[in-house]
Amino acid sequence: MTLKRLFVNLLKENSKRRLWTIAMSITANFFAQIVYAILMFGRYSERLATDRTTLDDIRIHFYNNVGGMGNVMVIGITFILPVILALQGYYYLLDSKQTDLYYSLPIKREKLFDINNLCGILVFAIPYLVFNIITVIMGLARGYATFDTILLYPLNALVILLSFIMLYEICTLAVVLTGHIVVAVLGCGVFYLLGSFAYSIFSFLMATFFTSYWNEVSDYNIGYTGSPMGLAGEAIARLHGDVNSEIAFYTFYAAPAILKMLVIAILSFVVSRILVKRRPAEAAGKAMAFSITRPVIKVAIACVAGLGAGLVMYYIGDIHSVPMFIFGIICGVLVVHAVIETIYEFDFKACLSHYASLIVSAVISLIVFAVFFFDIFGYESWQPMPARVASVAIGDDVTYSGIMAPYSKTRDVVSADFYYGSTANGMEYALYNMKLTDIDKAEKLTRLGAINAKEFHKDAFSGGQGIYGHTYREDDENTCYRQFQVQWNLKNGKTVRRIYELDINNEEVLSAFKDIYNTDEFRKGKFPVYGIARGEINSLEGQTLTGEVRKKLTDDEMDEFLKIYSEELSGQSFDDLATQIPNITLYGVMDAGKQAYYSQKYNFYIFDSFTRTNEFLKAHEIPTSWWNGDKDVNSIKVEIERWDDVNKQEIYSNWESSDSSEIDTVLKNIIPTDNYNVTGMNSDVYDEDDDATTVQITFNTSAGTYSDYLVILNKDELPDELKKKCFVGDDAALYRESKSGWVKCVNNG
Fold first, then answer.
1. Highest mean predicted confidence (pLDDT) among 88-92, 212-216, 719-723
2. Where does the pLDDT of residue 612 fall: very low under 50, low under 70, confident under 90, or very high at 90 and above?
3. 89, 116 in Cβ contact below 8 A?
4. The whole model's pTM is what?
5. Cα(431)–Cα(449) distance, integer angstroms
6. Any bridge partners for residue 265, and if so which?
7. What is the DSSP string of 145-189?
8. Bridge partners of 539?
9. Do residues 393 and 498 touch, judged by C-beta distance below 8 A?
10. Beta bridge partners of 423
11. Helix (H, G, I), strand (E, B), or coil: what is residue 98?
12. In what order do the strands lie in the sheet with 693-701?
């Protein structure tokens, strides 16, 4: 009982030393939660009044970003306050006079450490929890939170508290390992960021030297991966509500991140507590409290910095030089090693001391570089044993490259990287949903990809340069490299991904891809239409020459459309697609009667060959073509931009006409860029030897003016004056045919 009373009294005394940090925590949490909630309530009311949102959307936003874990200001406090509290609470370890005073007290060091540790946690936890409860009550009073989800908010709060405790214990460890306040701050920064820097450099090295490398982490988040902050952010992202599940609590998916945070927090606390007991009193005022940690931390930082400096030197010029990479590694290691030694000894003369750690850092950095440059472990040529593979997914940009689907259908958990209700591209959808079980058929394509990747790596090595940003070999004018993303779903539950560049005009590549494309497993994994649930969309919309059209359907009518469309899509073979271009792109929309965010969920390409689909659309007064032979066009203007190789300058010209026959001719030979790219063609680059190019066309109709970038085709059918301005050279072929006779590819010559 006496010990408990003593502990409580010591805790009270410790809190008196923290008055300014307590005031800071209260103020920060008040503004981050209460004030922010009041401001958001005003915005919610305004948007509801103008029908720019719905109450369900507001409840999801409140759960995610105001009363829940995704409150950006609360996250900021959670990241910054641990540093301040650790430095302030354990400052007695950094000042020799205070160290002598505290160590002379009749109390064990571990007990003193426990009191400081608990007090630091409570300084954040109590204000946060109090204001969080008030915020949730305010949300309940206004209907922005509901009682059936009330238990989610304390669970959210526990994740925030665990994130804070993990970061606080890490900062405490940094203070215990150091003996000077400046070095302690730097130590917190190292523990916060060294892992993310190391991961970022690893990712850049992979992208630089391996053509087949595919990184699932977004560029936005790559700087946080591998860091404690990134781990906390991962847990928060996986506990977010999403568009499908509304307010959800993904405990299963968040469990790994939560468990890692808990383990890191416990280990940091235990190690700090053990080190405090063994920490010499004379360590106060020195850079590092333990001599054994000096070379370990120094080598780790020097290696990461050296490889980072090598990448900077490699990319600093237009010519990527390997000698410059090596020079950058050596310079980076030397400079960082010298800086760390100066900090360790507080003496500039010591910058060149301890050559052993300098040599070790340089050798490790050069070995890491050699592993990537020479592909020592055979990353490019690696293929899993077929017996280990359960299924394969292949995403391609050859056909239907513009397919879209809700982002939530590309993974189990909606990441915080993407906005609410956002869409994903066809490759992402295919990699998540496709399950090709004919491993031998898939291996024909993946094997060619691995061979190609290995050859590219050898070519780059023989040229003394890396892979990143390289130009693929152009064997002849028909060479056309396209991208294939491959995911092996292994039987042990793991997934492995690669990205390959293959010449789609190569007969072996095309034959292997054609065999895969024509299978039902590939189609059902590639096309999102097969996975649309009843009631998920209720309207179809599209853009025509005269403007946007939207038609709302009943659930039965939509089910009928999806059934007809999917059946005709299944009947469209790879060779059929070679001769077809869609007439219009329709979008699947959930029309709630109010303006909604990112309303377009799916897209459907409508071809002439889809006869039953066209009949359904006509019966429901939905356009079947972006231009239905509309004669209500008064004039047309075509603006052409091309590069003059002789004079090295852009040439701008335009063609206008009010002649109905010329207008009709142009309209029959133009197509929206989205439709043009569906069959594997690429219209992004103007090529004077091709018979298709992108131009800006403006139509004047009685309904108004319509202007867009469109692809203009079939030069022989165009008016002579327009033909001269759009296409250069009398010998230009109608289309640049591939070896297979169907894939058109505009090369960036």
1. 88-92
2. very high
3. yes
4. 0.79
5. 17
6. none
7. S-GGGTTHHHHHHHHHHHHHHHHHHHHHHHHHHBSSHHHHHHHHH
8. 552, 589
9. no
10. 406
11. helix
12. 649-657, 633-644, 693-701, 704-712, 670-672
